Amino acid sequence: MNLTLKVWRQKNRVSEGGIVDYKVKDISPDMSFLEMLDVLNEDLLRQGQEPVAFDHDCREGICGSCNLFINGRAHGPEQGTTTCQLHMRKFSDGDTITIEPWRAAAFPINKDLSVDRSAFDRIIQAGGYVSINTGGTPDANEIPIPKDIADRAFEAATCIGCGACVAACKNASAMLFVSAKVSQLALLPQGHVERKTRVENMVAQMDLEGFGACTNIGSCAAECPVGISLENIAILNQEFLSAKATSNNLA
């Protein structure tokens, strides 16, 4: 396939950016989207131009690094798919593809298509873990967790932290990401001891990072590549209200 790419180029987070047009030729339909960008960068290097910066790591759909806005959609046109798992067969010969970075104040652009998502790391550091010593690891069949609870916790734990929920939200809210982490640990007995301080601290850090408020539009769940449910936001709200009602933290 021969394609026209409209790519956002920006030298750093303080400089102005803009869309630059590129042509790529002989793209195999079996290539992944990132492999197509590799072809573009090889062409640019041969021409003595600077390659396009973009984030990637595992290329197996599990690390969340491949955060691209493709033709106005987070991770591209295919639902439930990360950018690295998106294949060029989803496009047609002669197509024009617009490629942009995530757009959120809490995700400043590093360069071109690469954004700084360390705000998510700081939210996790604020409470997205279990610090209580739970002793030795028991046999899996002896853990007293009902299967439906374990399944719901596992579903919440599948969040890869890519930030598509933030990019898709008109308010740039991180509620789906935070709620997945809070729900995962609130559902499991290991997380019950710290559940109040956890949700208070994580929500406070989320607000501090500058993410917007949730207005329940649902675009976050619609664009989530791993299908995190809006039910988790309801669990987060319940956990937060319960924590505030009985908290010693009056802030």
What does this protein structure show overall?
The protein has 251 residues and is an alpha+beta fold. The chain has eight helices and seven strands; from the N terminus they run ββαβββββααααααα. It has helices spanning 33-46, 118-127, 147-157, 164-168, 175-187, 195-209, 219-223, 231-245, and strands spanning 3-9, 18-24, 69-70, 73-74, 96-100, 109-111, 114-115. The strands form two sheets. A five-stranded mixed sheet has the order 2-1-5-3-4. The protein has a two-stranded antiparallel sheet with strand order 6-7. A hairpin with a 2-residue loop joins β3 and β4 (73-74). α2 (118-127) packs antiparallel against α6 and α6 (195-209) crosses α8. The longest helix is centred in the C-terminal third of the chain and has 15 residues, at 195-209. It is elongated, with a radius of gyration of 20 Å. It starts with a strand and ends in a 6-residue tail after the last helix.
- Major beta sheet, specifics? 5 strands, mixed
Main sheet strand line-up = 2-1-5-3-4
Q: Evaluate the radius of gyration.
A: 20 Å
- Total strands: 7
Count of individual helical segments: 8
Helix-strand pattern: EEHEEEEEHHHHHHH
Low-confidence stretches: none
CA distance, first residue to last residue: 57 Å
Roughly what is the average pLDDT, rounded to an integer? 94
- Backbone shape: elongated
Proportion of β residues? 5-15%
How is the quaternary structure best described? single chain
**Helix-strand category:** alpha+beta
Helix amount, in percent?
Answer: 25-40%
